[in-house]
Amino acid sequence: MNARDPRAAETAEAPRPRKIIHIDMDAFYASVEQRDHPELRGKPVAVGGARERGVVAAASYEARKYGVRSAMPSVTARRKCPELVFVRPRFDVYRAVSMQIRDIFADYTPIIEPLALDEAYLDVTDTLKGVSSATQIAEEIRARIREATGLTASAGVSYNKFLAKIASDYRKPDGLFVITPRQGPGFVETLEVGRFHGVGPATRAKMNRLGIETGLDLKAQSLAFLQQHFGKAGAYYYWIARGVDERPVRANRLRKSIGAENTFIQDVFTLPAAREALAPIVDKVWRACEKNGVRGRTVTLKVKYADFHQITRARTIEAPVASREDFERIALELLAPVFPAAEGVRLLGVSLSSLESAGAAPRQLRFDLSS
To answer: What confidence score (pLDDT) does residue 361 get?
Structure first.
C-alpha cells in the first residue's frame, strides 16, 4: 500500500483529537461595500468591472438569488439580474478589514492558516485563553468580528480541516455547524462528492462516470482503484471518504505561485490577437493575488503551439510587481518575441511566483531575463 495509513502511528496512547475551526466571511467584498455604502444594503451588488469584458469578483447574497456568482462574466451577471449594481473593488479596504479579523484570531491561537482575505483555518486544540470548547471559541470569534467590523462570519468546527471547511458552508450565512469525531465518518457518507473540498467540477464529473456520486460510493472504492484513476490524489480521496484528514493547520502558509491559462477555440497567429487573449488571463491572476493579499516577483509566460510543443519565458524583478498594469506590461514583453509564430498558438498562460505578503517592504528594481 503506497499511502501511509494515518492511524498507523497510533500506539497504546491514542492522540487527542484536534480541534479545528474554519472561519469564512459571508460575501466578504460585497458585504464590506454594503456596510460602507448604506444605499447598497438590501440590493443585489457585484464587486467587479461592469465593462463588457469585466468579471464578477464577489456577489452579495441578494445577487446570488438571481444566480450571480464570482468569476462570472459581467455581461452574464447583468443578464441574470438587470438590477445588479456594480461596485469597483477596494482591495486596500478588504485587506485592512482582513487584518482586523486576523488580530481577533491571534487572541485565541498562533496556529492560523489564512486561505484568502476572507477565510482561515485555526487550530484551537491548545488555546491562549484556556477555553477548552472549540464551539465556544468559534461563537466568541463570530461575535467579536461582528462587533469590530459590522460583518458576519460563518464557522465550521471539527476534528480535521476537511470537515471544518465543509461545516462552515453548512449554515451560511451567519451560521455555525459542528461535526464531532463520532459524527464525521457517517456525515461524509451522506455528502455528494461535489461538496468535497478538493473535488472540482472535472473531478466530480469523472467520479460520476465511475459511479461515484456520494461519500458512501467513494468509501466503497479500494485505494488501488482510486490511485489508478486519480493518481496521487487517490489516497486523499480514500481517507476523506472515511472522515480522516491528517493535514496540519500551517501557520503563515503562503502559496508558491498563482497562475491561469486558456486554451483557445481557434489557434492564434498574430501578436495583436495574442495580446487581446492574454488580457483576461492577466485579470484572473491579478484578482487571485488581490484576494489572497500577495504579490510576486517572477512573471512566467507559457505558450503551447498547435503541435502541443510548449515553451516558457520568465522574468524576475527585485521588488514584487506593484500593479495589474505592471504585471500585464511584463507579460506582454515576454510575449512579443514569440511572434511572428511559424505555427498557431493554441494556449497561453501566465503566472506570478516568488510570492510574498502584499505588505512586504519594497526593494530596488533589477531586471533579470531568463528563458
So the answer is: 43
